[in-house]
Amino acid sequence: MHPTFYGNSGGSRSQRHLHSELVLNFINLPLLRYMLKLSLPLPDADIQFYPNFLNVSESDRFLTELTQRIQWRQDAITLFGRSLLQPRLTAWYGDPGKSYTYSNLTMMPTPWIPPLLDLKVKADAISGVVYNSVLLNLYRDGNDSMGWHSDDEPELGHNPVIGSLSLGGTRRFMLRHRFDKTLKHQVELTSGSLLLMRGATQHHWQHQIPKTKRPVSPRINLTFRVIG
Ligand SMILES: O=C(O)CCC(=O)C(=O)O
């Protein structure tokens, strides 16, 4: 499936979709497909989308391997004084000592395993940073989701680089500006795609993966991060 961009900036939704389709249909060389990069036209953000970061067979292989080999867990988080189970499974892998705290939950890193290291090396190369940790989320079906947030925890540093890799069922990634409520955008995160967020993006924008009533296959998302 090809990516669809739409939002409220720069041309109609159908024009942009057609443009993405045309670009992808003319690019058949594997290396060029891998390098195809689309920049999201958003103010106060620095976000690139690589729709074909992995090819279909790589994506399928990593999805199967990670589904089986990752130590998935379902943690409770505290929201507005109430303890709730997260609506998805999660895992945190990384270098020794690189723990991560969000929503009053601290995750200690599980040591890297080969498929994660393979993906990390590829993500490092395209991002121009050396990631030292990764948060994995498993969305079992359309009831699993992630609420509005920015990746702005102190251990990520001032302007974090976040490499977000998707495997499995396509889910909608929604963005909204934190201060100008008229600014919104959406990207369909297809299997094998990488979304790279950097610069001041997390200061100005929030993102979420909403629940969906559409039938959707399980999806794994990996957000590679640099913990200080
Ligand atoms: O599943 C996704 O694409 C989003 C993940 C995310 O927002 C996060 O890990 O902070």
Q: Output the CATH topology.
A: Jelly Rolls
Euclidean distance between termini CA atoms:
37 Å
Bound molecules: 2-oxoglutaric acid
Widest beta sheet: strand line-up:
2-3-14-11-16-9-6
* Major sheet description: 7 strands, antiparallel
Q: What is the CATH domain class?
A: Mainly Beta
Number of strands: 16
Please name the fourth-level CATH homologous superfamily: Alpha-ketoglutarate-dependent dioxygenase AlkB-like
Radius of gyration: 17 Å
* Helix and strand run: EHHEEHEEEEEHEEEEEEHEE
Which segments are poorly predicted (pLDDT under 50) over 5 or more consecutive residues?
1-11
List keywords for this structure.
5-stranded antiparallel β-sheet; binds 2-oxoglutaric acid; 16 strands; 34% strand; 5 helices; Jelly Rolls; 228 residues; alpha+beta; 7-stranded antiparallel β-sheet
